[in-house]
Design brief:
Layout (H helix, E strand, L loop, with lengths): L11 H13 L9 H13 L10 E8 L15 H11 L3 H9 L1 E9 L30 H20 L4 E7 L3 H13 L3 H4 L8 H17 L7 H8 L2 H15 L4 E3 L2 H13 L7 E3 L6 H10 L15 H19 L3 H4 L4
Parallel strand pairs: 1-2, 1-3, 3-4, 4-5
Helix pairs in contact: 1-2, 2-13, 4-13, 5-9, 5-10, 6-8, 6-11, 6-12, 10-11, 11-12
């Protein structure tokens, strides 16, 4: 059983100081809206006011395949996962372009890609298995594999924080992963499949029906493990989502803020909150995707998305698009003059 260290609460004194400073800046109180709230959150995570600008924002894309694709739940064939891993490594994917624009760097890790060999030794250093099982008819993972995947995510978070990362973003890549993510969210929110199933990569009506049926079958199989987060990952999750859960939980243990992406990452985060209660205080939701299950997961975590751009790509793209707004929040709190400093009547 994976056990995480207790989660510390972000610094309340730094938060209070940040709120007080916001109220003294040369603007009406509350005039910067959500930017003010984000600046207070960053200050509380860093334990200092004014907060420091992020110097090493880091995206980690977790790649893995899912046996449930055999049920016809995706618009793309499973070999695309391995091809996209190569694209990430070459810098040609959307996340590479958007991360560069936002001032973040990207790492891709092969947790469960269905390929003979990882693209490279470093990309495959934390690989758990080749693909995950078809959750409609079998467990995604063995008990040992589920634990190993969570531990892999924990180690990856430690590697990044130990290397100087001061903000983390988890991204996902895996054909069929929205099916698995939706099953997890439905199980954890006690929701009916027809209410939470979206179009994923762009499936048609027949694909939607197959996806709904696969999730219904997975939920039936998972009915005995609804209160066991690692058990849920074993039965109706996957190695990549388990690793993302470990990553999000360990980031909170290490007091490192996280921007969550779309439905897949947020499903993993929902599990991570069960693994490490209180971890959600260290996270912000970068955006709300078009997947119905994403809104349910955000509500369960009590997180308000920063953006709503009708995005549904994954990879961490929604989170990195939100990153410049978080940077702007930090800059305003740290660099704006107060009324006293500017000699302006408040």
């Amino acid at each position: 059983m994976t056990v995480f260290a207790p989660i510390a609460v972000p610094d309340a004194q730094a938060a209070a100081a940040a709120r007080s400073r916001q109220d003294r800046l040369t603007k009406p109180e509350g005039a910067l809206g959500r930017l003010e709230d984000l600046s207070v959150w960053v200050a509380s995570c860093q334990g200092i006011c004014p907060p420091r600008q992020f110097q090493r924002a880091r995206v980690v894309v977790f790649a893995g395949d899912h046996g449930v694709t055999a049920a016809g739940v995706s618009a793309f064939p499973p070999e695309v996962t391995a091809q996209m891993v190569a694209n990430f490594d070459a810098g040609g994917a959307a996340i590479n372009v958007l991360a560069e624009a936002a001032g973040a760097s990207v790492r891709v890790v092969d947790i469960a890609v269905d390929a003979d060999q990882p693209l490279s030794a470093s990309i495959g250093a934390h690989k758990v298995r080749r693909g995950s099982g078809n959750i409609a008819i079998e467990d995604a993972l063995s008990a040992a594999e589920a634990t190993a995947a969570v531990e892999a995510g924990r180690r990856i978070a430690d590697e990044e924080v130990d290397s100087g990362a001061d903000l983390l973003i988890a991204g996902d890549m895996g054909i069929g992963n929205t099916t698995v993510a939706t099953a997890l969210i439905a199980a954890l929110t006690d929701s009916e499949p027809v209410a939470v199933v979206g179009r994923g990569t762009g499936i048609d009506d027949a694909g939607w029906a197959r996806k709904t049926a696969a999730i219904r079958d997975a939920l039936y199989r998972a009915r005995g493990v609804a209160t066991d987060p690692v058990g849920l990952l074993r039965v109706c999750g996957g190695a990549d989502l388990a690793a993302m859960a470990g990553f999000c939980a360990q980031a909170a243990v290490r007091r490192t803020p996280v921007l969550l992406d779309g439905v897949v990452v947020t499903a993993a985060a929902l599990v991570a909150e069960r693994l490490a209660p209180g971890a959600r205080q260290w996270w912000q939701a970068g955006h709300r995707s078009t997947e119905p299950a994403h809104a349910l997961a955000l509500a369960a975590l009590d997180l308000e998305p920063i953006l709503e751009m009708r995005m549904r790509l994954g990879e961490g793209t929604g989170a990195v698009v939100a990153l410049p707004l978080v940077r702007a929040a930090v800059a305003t709190l740290a660099s704006m003059a107060t009324f006293d400093e500017a000699g302006i009547s408040s």
